[in-house]
Each structure stands twice: as C-alpha cells, then as structure tokens.
Known about the structure:
alpha/beta; Rossmann fold; 3 domains; globular; binds fructose -6-phosphate
Amino acid sequence: xxxxxxxILKKGRAAPLIREALKRLEYRGYDxxxxxxxxxxxxxxxxxxxxxxxxxxRLDLDDMPGRIGIGHTRWATHGAPSQENAHPHGDCxxxxxxxxxxxxxxxxxxxKELMERGHEFKSKTDTxxxxxxxxxxxxxxxxLEEAVIEAxxxxxxxxxxxxxxxxxxxxxxxxxxxxxLVVGIGEDGMYCASDVxxxxxxxxxxxxxxxxxxxxxxxxxxxxVNALTEEEVIKEERHVDWSPELAMKGGYDHFxxxxxxxxxxxxxxxxxxxxxxxxxxxxxxxxxxxxxxxACGTSYHACVAASYIFSKVAKMHVEPVIAxxxxxxxxxxxxxxxxxxxxxxxxxxxDTLVAVRYAKRKGADILGITNVMGSSLCRISSVYVGQxxxxxxxxxxTKTYTGQLLALTKIAIKxxxxxxxIDEKGEKELLEELSKAPEEVRKxxxxxxxxxxxxxxxxxxxxxxxxxxxxxxxxTAMEGRLKLLEISYxxxxxxxxxESKHGFIAVVEPGYPVVFIIxxxxxxxxxxxxxxxxxxxxxxADIIAVVPESALEKVKDFVDDPIVVPDVxxxxxxxxxxxxxxxxxYYVSVAKGYDPxxxxxxxxxxxVK
Length: 609
Ligand code: F6R
C-alpha cells in the first residue's frame, strides 16, 4: 500500500502542495518518497529513501518549479527502500514519470520484453515497466492518454497510477485497477490521489474512479474513459464531509477496524507475491535437517498454526518457538544444518532479531517473512517473503496475521510439491483453494459483523474469558485471546481444548464465558471439540462459538451464542475463523470505552529485549 498524489494548478507551484498531500498520505507507506514536476518542457525529479520530512530536509522538495506534478510515498513490495527504488519512475529519457500503488504481477516478463527492445531499467521495482510501456506508445505516435490506455491493458495485478510527460505538459493521466484512486475537483486546479485525506484541506468535491477507468486532468477539467471500451464515462460527483482524522481511517472509527475490513484486499496482495520467493524458501527448508519457526506475539501464533499446516500438507516437522526463549531452549542444537524461519510483521522485534542473530552466528540458514521490506529481518535473511499487507497502524496485529498465515500455507504447499507429495495438478488445486481466502474473509465479515457487535455489548463486562480450540484452531484460540486481552485488558486464557480438563476446568462456574472455535463436522477433531463443549456447558459456562454453517445443527443445543460463519476450504479455515474473534475483541474494547488503536503499555514494534 503506497500513497500517490498528482495536481495540476491554474497558478502557483505544485511541489509544496504535493509534499503536504504526501504527508497526509504517509499512513499508507513511509519508507521512501518522491516528487516529479514539469516546467519549461523539462521534467524535475527529487526522491529518496526515508520519510517525507527527512527527505524534504535533505533535498528541499518545495524547491521544484512547475504547476503540474505527481508524488508518491512508498510501502515497498518489490525492491528494498532506496533512492533508485523510490517513485516516481521514468522512461529511458525521463520524458515520462509515473507513480504507482499496487503490484504488477507480470512485470518480470514485461521487463524482459522491454529490455530486449533496448529499454534501460534503473530500479528493481515492478512499477518501472509502466513508464517504458508508455514511452513505446508515445514513440508509436499515440497521445499520452492513448499510450497510458495501451500500457495499462498490458498490466496484470493491481494499480493506481498517475502519469505526466513533457510531451503533453498540461495534463495528468491517471488510471486504476483494484487499487484506490480518487479525483479531486478544486477551484484552483485538479487533483488525483490514492485517498481522500490527501486533498481534504484543498477541496471536498471528488469523483471515485472504478476499475479500468482512466482520468485525464487539466487545470480546469477532467474526463474519464474506460480503458477497455475506450468510451467516456460520466461520473457522479461526491461531496465529502469527513474530518481529516476520519478520512485517514477510511471513514471507520479506528484503524484497527479499517485494517480488519481491508483483509480481503491485503490477502489479495499477499497472493500476488511471485512464487519465486516461496519456492526458494521451500527449498531452503527442505535442505535443512532441523527447522524452527521463531516469532513473538501474534506472529508466534501464525507459527503455531503453520506447524499444523506443515505437518498435514508437507509432512514436515517445523518447531514454533517464542523468540525470547529460543536461545535458552534450542541454542545448543542450532548448527549449519538448521533453518530458522523468523516471522515478524515489523522485521524489527528485538527478541526475534536476537534469536536469528544467534542462529546465524552458529551457521544456521536464516529465512524471513515480514511486512516491512528493508527491515533488519530482510537484511539478515538469506531469503525472505515480503507479505505486502500494507502498513498496519493499529497496535493490535490483524491483517498482518492473516497475511502471515497465507504466506506460511503457501510455503507448505511449495514444500509438498518439491518433496513430490503432490504433483503439478495437486499443487494447482491447493493454491486455488488458498486463493479463495480473500473472498471467504469478505463473506465472514459480512455475515458476522452485526452479530458480533451485539455479543460484545452483552459480554463486555465479564471479568475473564477462555478460548478453546483443537488442531490448527489452538492457534486461532491463542490469537483470539491475545486480541481480546491486549485491547480490552480482560485477563483471559487460551488452551488446546483437550488440555482444558487437566486444570482450567476448575475455574469454570456458572456464567463463565468460554469461546470455542468449532470445525466442520467432517473434521477429525469435531467430535472431541463437541465433547469439550458439553463438559463446559454442564458446568454452567456461557458458550460462545465460531460455528461453520454445516456444524450448527449438531452444536446448537450446547452453544449459547453461536457466531455462524460460512464453510470455507480447509486451508482457508485458520485465516477465515480468526476474523470474528478480531471483531469481537475490537467491539468489546469499544464497548468498554477504550481506544483499540492504542492499548496501554504496548508498542507496535517492540525493539527492546
Ligand atoms: C499483537 C501484536 C504483537 C506482535 C509482536 C511481534 O497484536 O501485535 O504481539 O505480534 O510484538 O511483532 P512483530 O510481528 O513485528 O515481530
């Protein structure tokens, strides 16, 4: 998730306005930024790694001439944060400049094709193919609008782009597919941006572009065409009355809710990551004799889930370990035949880095999954996957957890294929199953949100909760409990359901809330989970449960408050079934009057041991 902005003014200079707009978009990404303007037939570009204010101090971003320009604040997906990977990107002669938010899935083949035709590339980004494609169109006699249309038709994946060119210095052409893009209509000029907050202080009149729409902006007009039909589209203008704060949260009350809701989109982005990295990671895991998954907090829960998935899908033993315990627990068995796959949203968690640095010193192969490209974990890993979930601002991890689960499951499928446990067709089937995750999560949210709001009001004053699950849903229970605990401050516990009778059951008294994650009736753990529910129910517990539709009939007599979810493919279950528990934690926190985005004593990135 990056932020893009473009403006074409009737008078004055574009650069200071672009810089301020990028600052308001920084919540969408902040590892590098840049601006391009046109003046006197010449393109001016300033860009660098770092946050906008730092770059501005170094390069004086305001000091760029021209009434027209585009800008970008980046959340790296392809290529580490660096000067050359920062946007805008240009064609061979810097006559075209492009900013882009999204992921171009077929950039590899487009890049090869363009290089064969003599194009020179300066960055490692997927974006850079776009200005070169536009350059070819212009060379072939197309105007800028036509060249952009021709270029975007060749792109697979997601994009919101803004383009300027010295060939037509009086327009911005912007286009979108699957990444957001809005056009702002002002008194003093026209604007385009990834998101409304960028131009809120300037104008509240806007038009939201839909997939495959291309907008051509001049200083006092805009026109929208469909890139596929090339027909003009008449758009409805809207007036936004959001405060800047509300706009940043996409109209939601909190970032956490926004991030829960954007999981379908974030999962799509994780699915878009090239198989190449997953294959490399799978190969490294197979080569090793001992394999540890090392992480903290929510990321550790993703590792717990992965240990079940690797065992079932890839017949591979991977040991999930809490990072702060790794050296004490397994330090003596780490050697050059060991692989340590560290999972960290931030890539900067001190406990995780201590563990991997120790393992590296002992010769282990270090692998990584992280949401932050260029993080310490990226630098220390021999291979890593950047999960591309976009920045997560709420302290409680939500969309990055489901992204981690998806990435880990994909690695397990790749291991299975490499080990010959499945053939090409089998791999394709499993990947197809997994690719349903975004849509299933969307359905779960739609089906459960209102119900969970009611349950949160009903239960928010309880003193304690217990979360129980079996199999892979031990991880779902642990994560559901962590979400509730950290943002509502309700002391809670999570157990493998089978273990609950070895101690926890002593705590249960009438009215004690126990949350179960119930699998579908054909799951091998179903009967045992049902027995555990009956044990709790017979002691008077209030049973709340995530229940797939197919199980409802069988469990309804024992569950007081079912949260009914659709049946989803097996591999998608851990991803889909945590979502109602994220929502439950969120609404309980709100019902208690807390700010779920800023839980006390917690930080987004824990960089102390
Ligand atoms: C919980 C949460 C934390 C993090 C933990 C690890 O919602 O966010 O438990 O999961 O601090 O952080 P990363 O994944 O950045 O290493």
